[in-house]
Structures are given as C-alpha cells and as structure tokens.
Design brief:
alpha/beta, TIM Barrel, 8-stranded parallel beta barrel, 12 helices, 16% strand, globular, binds 2-phosphoglycolic acid
C-alpha cells in the first residue's frame, strides 16, 4: 500500500496569535488536499487559536516541542497532556535548532519521543548532518546513530505510525536544497535502518520527510522519490507557496 504523503509547516518562532489566525485563513483555500496530510507545527502560544482556526478543514496541528516530564515544577515547559487536551496531533522532536541552540541530546530526545507516544501524539523526529559531517563522509553513520539513540524503547507499532524528518543542517533556511539524489539516498538509508531495527513492514509504513529550503519549485521532484513521503517546511510554510508544496502534483 502506498504511503500517504505528509507536508508539515514548521513555523518556528514566527507569528503572534493574531498573525497566526490570519495566516491560517490566507492558506485555507490553498492547502486543500484529499491525498496529502497537512500539518501546521506552531509556537506554543499559537496552538489554541490555530486549533480553533483550522476546525472543519483538512489541516492538523502540531507543536514544536514537548516536555519529557508529565507535570510539576518545570517552569516554562509544556506537557504532553496539555498539548493533547488543546487538540494537538503531532509534535516536532529533535529539530537541529533545538539540538544546537538548546543542547538537546539524544538521551533527552529519546525521552521526549516516548513521552509523545504516551500522550497519543505523533512525533515528527528530526535528524540530519552538518556540512562538515557531509564533507567528511559520515552523513549516514551520523543519522543512523541519531535515530538509533532516539528510538530506544519505541515499539514497531509506534514506529510505523511516526514521521521522521531528514533535514541536512546546511540546507535549513539557507536556500540551498539538497539534490534529489542526496535527499533520496539518506531517506532510503533511514528506511533500511528502520527495517534493521524493526522489520520490513514497519519500514514500509513509516513516513520519512525531507526538510531544508523546500519550496513550490523543488517539492515535485523531491516528493516523487520512492523514499520521500513529503516535507518539513520552514520558511515557505509562512507564505502562499506552502499551498503549492501541498499540491505539488
Ligand atoms: P527551511 O526550514 O524550509 O526554512 O529550510 C526547514 C526546517 O527547519 O524544518
């Protein structure tokens, strides 16, 4: 069975609640699709208004982060229970910006992945190499190590339902998209790793996105690759172009 494509916007730290509602309204007619899952991963403060604004549409809402704890004295954190109760379905975990700027390591991210599943949220787990790592030829080793570490304790059934986003760091926000071959190669290696950790059936079901400067122009070729099941979109998710990416065919 063919995997359903999934296109997720990663709004990062953009849009006030008022701006968020306006963006959802602007994009609504452009992101309609019967065969692509569409997700807006939004800043925590935008979750409640965006859940309200997408009601009755095909768009699902994701968070950009989740606490590895359940509740209690963790100032500034947001729990899985809060996200679920607010109407969130997906959560980005391990984006390179969080790994780099906030020093989130794989052991910590592994706890977040498990926590997301505990609360019925679908992780969009990010991985990807730096330019130095690509040039040193360790891309696939690195991505395998990240994912193996982040997936400890995740069952085959859970893995089959989740999303992995391969995002080469050097392609994020730089306008420098990986070549179709580079993106497909790593996404294929990720699927092989999933088959190795779990089984062929799980590898067949898991959805793997490419992310890094995807736009309406580059999406069709990227999404046509056998192991690329959609994209995680930063900059272009805040513009009309996002509609083109969703309706890439
Ligand atoms: P970009 O961001 O599309 O702006 O490169 C992608 C991401 O960081 O998820």
């Amino acid at each position: 069975m063919a995997r359903r494509k999934i296109v997720a916007g990663n709004w990062k730290m953009n849009k006030t609640p008022t701006e968020a509602k306006a963006l959802v309204a602007m994009l609504a007619p452009l992101v309609k699709s019967d065969d692509v899952d569409v997700v807006y991963c939004v800043p925590a403060i935008d979750i409640v208004p965006v859940v309200e604004a997408v009601k009755g549409t095909n768009v699902k809402v994701g968070a950009e982060n989740i606490s590895d704890k359940d509740s209690g004295a963790f100032t500034g954190e947001i729990s899985g229970a809060m996200l679920k109760d607010a109407g969130v379905d997906y959560v980005i975990i391990g984006h390179s910006e969080r790994r780099d700027y906030y020093k989130e390591d794989d052991a910590f991210l592994n706890r977040k992945v498990l926590k997301a599943f505990e609360y019925g949220l679908t992780p969009i787990l990010c991985c990807g190499e730096s330019l130095a790592q690509r040039e040193a030829g360790v891309t696939i080793d690195w991505v395998r190590l990240q994912l193996k570490s982040d997936l400890i304790g995740v069952t085959a059934e859970q893995a089959a339902s989740m999303v992995i986003a391969y995002e080469p760091i050097w392609a994020i926000g730089t306008g420098k998209v990986a070549t179709t071959e580079q993106a497909q190669e790593v996404c294929h290696a990720i699927r092989e790793l999933i088959a190795e950790i779990y089984d062929a059936d799980t590898a067949e079901k898991i959805r793997i996105q490419y992310g890094g400067s995807v736009n309406g122009k580059s999406a069709p070729e990227l999404f046509a690759q056998p192991d690329i099941d959609g994209g995680l979109i930063g900059g272009a998710s805040l513009k009309e172009d996002f509609g083109k990416i969703v309706n890439y065919k």
